[in-house]
Amino acid sequence: MDALHALHTRSSANLLCEPGPSKLQIDNIVKAGLRACDHRCLRPWRYLIIQGSARDSFGDLMVDVLQARDGAALDEKTKEKVKGKPQRAPTILVVIAKLTPHPSVPEIEQLLSAGASAQMMMTAAYAQGVGAIWRSGGIMFEEGLRQGLGLSENERLIGFIYLGTPKVSKPAPELDPDDFLSAWPAIPD
Ligand SMILES: Cc1cc2nc3c(=O)[nH]c(=O)nc-3n(C[C@H](O)[C@H](O)[C@H](O)COP(=O)(O)O)c2cc1C
């Protein structure tokens, strides 16, 4: 797919099924992530891949984290729902920001760079016909989840990119650039 076409029409795929992306498609997605803009080339990111039965372990981890947070308030129905979340896609990429103290690259710039990396991966998935959706949820900010996924003190979760075969195709909305772009200083009427 032409690059501009992919950039202009990318949309998320909420409903995903098997098969998941091939090794080549995953490599292409990760290679795109590695080309995100990156002040001082710190490479402030790394990624995890969760697929197959590892999704069961990820679901168990999420339940354990919520159990530790909510205790008895967590009912069986909610537990089952949370446990099943990783089954919504064959493959999940976890995008992690790796923050390094730097005199001219503040933390926010490194977080933005890791976020840009996730967006690059989203577009690379779409360009290859791989369905993708960037998911998060309040659980992302739980320390237990960070620990369970093996994040270090200097690392932050950016998001979960769910990948698979799209069940339905959703057209991108038509947005007018002029609604978002204006000259500075403002041009008087
Ligand atoms: C940081 C971030 C977190 C998100 N978390 C979720 C989420 O947890 N669940 C969800 O359905 N969509 C989430 N989204 C939104 C979807 O990924 C998607 O962008 C949105 O549904 C709009 O669809 P589109 O990408 O096709 O325009 C998140 C997006 C971002 C950037």
TrEMBL record:
<dbReference type="GO" id="GO:0016491">
    <property type="term" value="F:oxidoreductase activity"/>
</dbReference>
<feature type="binding site">
    <location>
        <position position="39"/>
    </location>
    <ligand>
        <name>FMN</name>
    </ligand>
</feature>
<feature type="binding site">
    <location>
        <position position="35"/>
    </location>
    <ligand>
        <name>FMN</name>
    </ligand>
</feature>
<feature type="domain" description="Nitroreductase">
    <location>
        <begin position="14"/>
        <end position="164"/>
    </location>
</feature>
<feature type="binding site" description="in other chain">
    <location>
        <begin position="10"/>
        <end position="12"/>
    </location>
    <ligand>
        <name>FMN</name>
    </ligand>
</feature>
<keyword id="KW-0521">NADP</keyword>
<dbReference type="Pfam" id="PF00881">
    <property type="entry name" value="Nitroreductase"/>
</dbReference>
<keyword id="KW-0288">FMN</keyword>
<keyword id="KW-0560">Oxidoreductase</keyword>
<dbReference type="InterPro" id="IPR052530">
    <property type="entry name" value="NAD(P)H_nitroreductase"/>
</dbReference>
<protein>
    <recommendedName>
        <fullName>Putative NAD(P)H nitroreductase</fullName>
        <ecNumber>1.-.-.-</ecNumber>
    </recommendedName>
</protein>
<dbReference type="InterPro" id="IPR029479">
    <property type="entry name" value="Nitroreductase"/>
</dbReference>
<keyword id="KW-0520">NAD</keyword>
<keyword id="KW-0285">Flavoprotein</keyword>
<comment type="similarity">
    <text>Belongs to the nitroreductase family.</text>
</comment>
<dbReference type="InterPro" id="IPR026021">
    <property type="entry name" value="YdjA-like"/>
</dbReference>
<feature type="binding site" description="in other chain">
    <location>
        <begin position="134"/>
        <end position="136"/>
    </location>
    <ligand>
        <name>FMN</name>
    </ligand>
</feature>
<dbReference type="InterPro" id="IPR000415">
    <property type="entry name" value="Nitroreductase-like"/>
</dbReference>
